[in-house]
């Protein structure tokens, strides 16, 4: 029986699953731990590491582009293999994502690996944002245009789509992503209170647990300066020790000790302005010296370079995807800033899907059920007959 | 007499003022650090290299496993490139990786204290870092 495997191959996690099944989010990398010598852990084997302090990452992507093929192949061997998806390559088509403006040598290696190494029956290479746009247009069939904001691990892309076609002239990349936010938080904490430079894994969890996007940046700055209980931004985070405390957590407010030290022995991080100043980098990259527009300004800039009659349609169909859009307050802030930067006679609407990380995977699932799907893929026979050329011709990439 | 420098020039040399180029290099170094996958070294880096496998009798047999392995090496060599190789070699006409980068913001630059992160009004004379109060300036000078 023919099946389709949808793989949104991200720089940090792979979103993978059969189109008739559910999606799994799995680390797209390998790990080494301080305690388990001689072993390299692949993808979801992360769960086997009992003490992930000082976890060492080996990533297949660099700046959002696939460069480390041996790592990527190890991860794919694991994902496609008998431990996970048990792919029967001869009877499986694959929908796989790649970044915007991917480099042709990467695309060629991808073709070779999919068709010659794994020997998939057929393949469709596509941008993750195109899958998101497909899903959005399916769910909102009256809309003509949308603008996909994909804020991921390596960077943030703003991409306008009109009737399912991406508008290349409007594509805008901001070089701020989740990796940079975690590294920035790591540096701040290491400078101000505790050396955590080796603890990317732990601090990434801290980021996910405590960081939020401010709705009024300077007001939050004032609150964060206050002493004692009045400081509602301040938060104490209990770090994991991986023996009794397996996972870090925020101390409940009623248990917080504002005046002195805790008598319990656990290790605490006290967080104030870092909670919102770190995610603020997405909105003002220049705050840390990256001279680029932030997300709302880039959205407006991108739309203003498009034909005038289309512009209102983009402003009322802004779709947020990618892990950073899960930061509390992210949607409201994007709305607030875009609203204030656009003329009042334009309607502004910002949509945050229920699962922004898997939104493009769900789009891939929908696409594979589309009656035109068989015309969009390239079969292995096609490829063997025509080579890279046919892929370049057919894929809108 | 050569050991003893005038005290004034010594003071001046201690408080070296960094020029623009140095400040920019420093900023670039900081931004590069934010791109790093890991701060620490690979925990396997110091392990002794495993003893190289001795040739076996069946090495000449073209078993499928062996074939797959050589293929992998081929890929490794052919595609072992870093990111820099790519964008230098693939600037095409029309929208591309370089043109897609967000332009500089039109909003005014905001300044934050390099020590505590709160809005800052003062600039360190030597290195251009920002600070907000005397206390933070002290910390900045000690830790720079």
Word description of this protein:
- Chain A: InterPro entries: Actin, ATPase_NBD.
- Chain A: It is found in: Cytoplasm, Cytoskeleton; Nucleus.
- Chain A: One of its GO terms (cellular component) is cytoskeleton.
- The complex is a heterodimer of chains A (397) and B (144).
- Chain A is α+β, with helices and mostly antiparallel strands and 397 residues long.
- Chain A contains 14 helices and 20 strands.
- Chain A has three domains: 3-29 and 62-129 and 357-394, ATPase, nucleotide binding domain (Nucleotidyltransferase, domain 5, 2-Layer Sandwich), CATH 3.30.420; 141-176 and 289-351, 2-Layer Sandwich (Nucleotidyltransferase, domain 5), CATH 3.30.420; 178-279, Actin, Chain A, domain 4.
- In chain A, the strands form five sheets. A six-stranded mixed beta sheet of chain A has the order 3-2-1-9-10-20.
- In chain A, a hairpin with an 8-residue loop joins strand 4 and strand 5 (41-42).
- In chain A, helix 4 (178-192) packs across helix 5 (200-210).
- Chain A starts with a strand and ends with a helix.
- The mean pLDDT of chain A is 95.
- Chain B has helices spanning 7-14, 20-33, 64-78, 83-89, 134-143, and strands at residues 122-123, 130-131.
- Chain B has a two-stranded antiparallel sheet.
- With 144 residues, chain B is mainly α.
- The model of chain B is unreliable at 62-70 (pLDDT under 50).
- Chain B is built from five helices and two strands, in the order H-H-H-H-E-E-H.
- In chain B, strand 1 (122-123) and strand 2 (130-131) form a beta hairpin.
- Chain B is extended, with a radius of gyration of 27 Å.
- Chains A and B meet through strand 6, helix 1, helix 2, strand 14 and helix 4 of A and helix 2, helix 3 and helix 4 of B.
């Amino acid at each position: 029986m023919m099946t389709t495997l949808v793989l949104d191959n991200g720089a940090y996690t792979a979103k993978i699953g059969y189109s008739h099944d559910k999606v799994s989010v799995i680390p797209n990398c390998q790990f080494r731990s301080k305690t388990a010598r001689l072993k390299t852990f692949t993808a979801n084997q992360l769960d086997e590491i009992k003490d992930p302090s000082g976890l060492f990452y080996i990533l297949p992507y660099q700046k959002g582009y696939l460069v480390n093929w041996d790592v990527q192949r190890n991860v794919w061997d694991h994902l496609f293999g008998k431990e996970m998806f048990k792919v029967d390559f001869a009877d499986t088509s694959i929908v796989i994502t790649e970044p915007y403006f991917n480099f042709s040598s990467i695309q060629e290696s991808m073709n070779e690996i999919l068709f010659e190494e794994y020997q998939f029956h057929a393949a469709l290479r596509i941008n993750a944002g195109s899958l998101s746009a497909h899903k959005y247009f399916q769910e909102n069939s009256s809309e003509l245009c949308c603008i996909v904001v994909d804020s991921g691990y390596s960077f943030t892309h703003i991409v306008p789509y009109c009737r399912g076609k991406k508008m290349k002239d409007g594509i805008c990349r901001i070089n701020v992503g989740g990796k940079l936010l975690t590294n920035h938080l790591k540096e701040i904490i290491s400078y101000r209170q505790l050396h955590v430079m080796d603890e990317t894994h732990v601090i990434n969890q801290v980021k996910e647990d405590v960081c939020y996007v401010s709705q009024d940046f300077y007001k939050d700055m004032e609150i964060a300066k206050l002493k004692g209980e009045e400081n509602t931004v301040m938060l104490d985070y209990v770090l994991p020790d991986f023996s009794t405390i397996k996972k870090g957590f925020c101390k409940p407010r009623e248990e917080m000790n504002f005046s002195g030290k805790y008598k319990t022995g656990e290790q605490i991080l006290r967080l104030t302005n870092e909670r919102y100043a770190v995610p603020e980098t997405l909105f003002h990259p220049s705050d840390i010296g990256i001279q680029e527009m932030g997300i709302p300004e880039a959205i407006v800039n991108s739309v203003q370079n498009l034909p005038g009659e289309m512009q209102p349609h983009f402003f009322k169909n802004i779709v947020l995807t990618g892990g950073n859009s899960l930061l509390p307050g992210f949607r409201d802030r994007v709305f607030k800033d875009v609203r204030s930067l656009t003329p009042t006679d334009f309607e502004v609407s910002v949509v945050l899907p229920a699962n922004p990380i898997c939104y493009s995977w769900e789009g891939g699932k929908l696409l594979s059920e589309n009656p035109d799907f068989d015309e969009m893929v390239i079969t292995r026979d096609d490829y063997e007959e025509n080579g890279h050329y046919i892929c370049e011709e057919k894929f809108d990439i | 007499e050569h050991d003893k420098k005038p005290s004034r020039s010594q003071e001046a040399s201690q408080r070296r003022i960094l020029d623009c180029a140095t400040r920019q290099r420093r900023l670039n170094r900081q931004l590069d650090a934010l791109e790093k996958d890991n701060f620490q070294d690979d925990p396997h880096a110091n392990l002794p290299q495993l003893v190289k496998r001795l040739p076996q009798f069946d090495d000449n047999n073209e078993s499928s496993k062996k074939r797959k392995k050589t293929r992998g090496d081929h890929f490794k060599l052919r595609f072992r490139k870093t990111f820099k190789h790519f964008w230098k070699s693939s600037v095409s006409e029309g929208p591309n990786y370089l043109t897609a980068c967000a332009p500089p913001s039109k909003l005014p630059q905001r300044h934050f204290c390099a020590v505590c992160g709160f809005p800052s009004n003062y600039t360190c004379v030597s290195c251009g870092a920002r600070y907000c109060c005397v206390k933070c300036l002290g910390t900045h000078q000690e830790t720079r």
